[in-house]
Design goal:
- The protein is mostly helical.
- The chain has helices at about 1-10, 10-25, 25-55, 60-85, 85-95, 95-115, 115-120, 125-150, 155-175, 190-195, 195-205, 215-220, 225-235, 240-255, 260-265, 270-285, 290-305, 310-335, 340-360, 370-385, 390-400, 405-435, 440-455, 465-475.
- Helix 4 packs antiparallel against helix 22 (about 405-435) and helix 6 (about 95-115) runs antiparallel to helix 11.
Length: about 500
């Protein structure tokens, strides 16, 4: 506890910036994902009313469902577009400028959606959701990269795992705001839809007071004084030579090397296994069953005989459980390591899905079985939050050098948004055919991914980017001779941040 308080005092600038990045980053996405559920009935009613006013007859039910599905899915289309352009914008303008402009886009989108009811135009909701998707697709990779680059080695895992905390926090706040007693009512749903502009406004006002990431300033801008100033602001006064040495070693290894394009990264044999890992991690997050769990929570609670209003609050408790779990993850990730949290998390989640399948199969036989299902569901969400949710983000940042990070995050984000679209369109049909036995598919994915992680993913805890790259080189080049980074590369760059 004493060590944590001392770190909190010394690195207060870092913690403040992590909060600012989180509010305008993954918090925003979690908030929008959760609030759209609470607006579904109100938006459908608004579309029907608007159609009736324009054409004199109510909209056909099939057309209404089509427009609603477009309203939901167009967010993912925008996310795919925004993530595809993140590499180019990051390299050209830097992360800080991109985030500031991105906040303006989100505020405009929120204003358009908030005025849709007054303007009697459901098309404004579609336009706003598309713009929100573009903003979300751009801000997520920027948030992950930014947080990873501003953190010292000993706090890197903690800092990276905060993105999953803000994601869960956004979902929890969205669930709370979407209650009928607050903004989820018939009259206030436009305010709920427009409230996504508030986090963007907070980041727009506060982010200018924080610096660009030290590695970006030193390695791409060649601004040594700016790098020292950023380190002092974020990490406090003191001797941070070890971290500076890591930056200089990485700079030496990428001397005369430009930021790779997506195609160049995919063709580069030196990063083959890093790409394999990022594909496996991204696919596993999509196919781990967490979305199916949230889908079945309502059904399980109905089977247990709970009142519909009570079910809404109990579903909220599941989201809050994930939030608490991500806090635990942030506190233990530097102790246990990323590999342990991923491997153990996958295997435990797979075992819990087997148990959930059994209890759902027997819930009509015994009156107490739905309660067992609910307990297993909450435990599944907690294990996801403690393990894979935070460790996945940390691994994504740590296994790539700065020259490869932008295209790697483009690949990861595109795969993620494609997964959101594919799962969103196919999952209802899978559930309709397989019912709760769909969890067996997710169980197989989790156990397979756990084995792959155990066999091939090196532990990144406490290692520099150069050391992690050397670990992957053993897989990428096998028995080939690999030149090591000279030990003297930092001799001409030794400096201290104490004034």
């Amino acid at each position: 506890m004493t060590g944590f308080l001392s770190d909190l005092a010394q690195y207060q600038g870092l913690f403040q910036m992590i909060t600012v990045l989180g509010i305008g980053g993954t918090f925003q996405i979690g908030f929008q994902i959760s609030t759209i559920t609470y607006m579904s009935q109100h938006v459908k009613a608004f579309i029907n009313e608007t159609w009736l006013e324009r054409y004199g007859y109510p909209i056909h039910q099939d057309n209404l469902l089509f427009l609603w599905s477009i309203t939901v899915s167009i967010f993912g289309v925008g996310g795919l577009l925004g993530s595809s352009g993140s590499r180019y914008l990051t390299v050209k303008y830097g992360k800080k400028k991109c985030l500031l402009c991105n906040n303006l886009l989100m505020i405009v989108a929120a204003s358009i959606m908030g005025c849709s009811k007054i303007a009697r135009s459901f098309e404004m909701i579609l336009i706003g959701r598309f713009m929100c998707g573009i903003s979300a697709g751009l801000c997520v990779p920027l948030h992950h990269q930014y947080v990873g680059e501003i953190s010292p080695r000993k706090l890197r895992g903690f800092a990276n795992s905060t993105s999953s905390f803000f994601w869960s926090l956004g979902k929890a706040v969205g669930q709370i705001s979407g209650q009928r007693e607050l903004l989820g009512s018939q009259s206030l749903w436009p305010m709920l839809m427009a409230s996504c502009g508030l986090p963007a406004l907070v980041q727009l006002v506060t982010l200018p007071f924080f610096p660009e990431s030290p590695p970006y300033l030193l390695m791409h801008k060649g601004d040594q004084e700016g790098c020292k100033k950023a380190i002092r602001q974020l990490w406090g006064e003191g001797h941070h030579q070890a971290e500076i040495d890591d930056i200089m070693k990485e700079k030496a290894t990428m001397k005369n090397t430009k930021i790779l394009s997506v195609l160049e990264l995919m063709k580069e044999p030196a990063f083959r296994w890093q790409l394999y890992m990022i594909v496996i991690l991204t696919a596993t997050v999509q196919l781990c069953g967490i979305n199916a769990i949230y889908f079945y929570t309502f059904e399980v609670l109905q089977a247990a005989g709970f009142d519909e209003r009570m079910i809404s609050y109990m579903t909220l408790s599941v989201g809050l459980s994930e939030l608490v779990a991500t806090v635990v993850c942030s506190s233990i990730i530097e102790r246990l390591g990323r590999k342990v949290l991923l491997r153990g998390g996958y295997w435990i989640m797979g075992s819990l899905l087997a148990g959930i399948t059994v209890t759902l199969s027997l819930q009509d036989w015994y009156f107490w079985m739905p309660y067992c299902s609910l307990c297993l569901i909450i435990l599944f969400v907690v294990v996801f939050g403690v393990g894979p949710a935070g460790a996945t983000v940390s691994i994504r940042v740590e296994i790539f050098k700065l020259s490869c990070r932008p295209p790697a995050f483009v690949i990861s984000a595109v795969l993620n948004w494609l997964g959101v679209f594919v799962i969103g369109t196919t999952f209802p049909f899978i559930v309709e055919r397989l019912k709760h036995f769909c969890f067996l598919i997710f169980m197989g994915v989790l156990f397979t991914s756990g084995i792959i992680i155990h066999l091939f993913l090196p532990e990144t805890k406490g290692k520099s980017i150069v050391e992690i790259t050397e670990e992957f080189n053993k897989l990428n080049f096998k028995k080939k001779c690999i030149p090591t980074t000279p030990n003297h590369v930092t001799e001409d760059y030794t400096f201290c941040t104490r004034l």
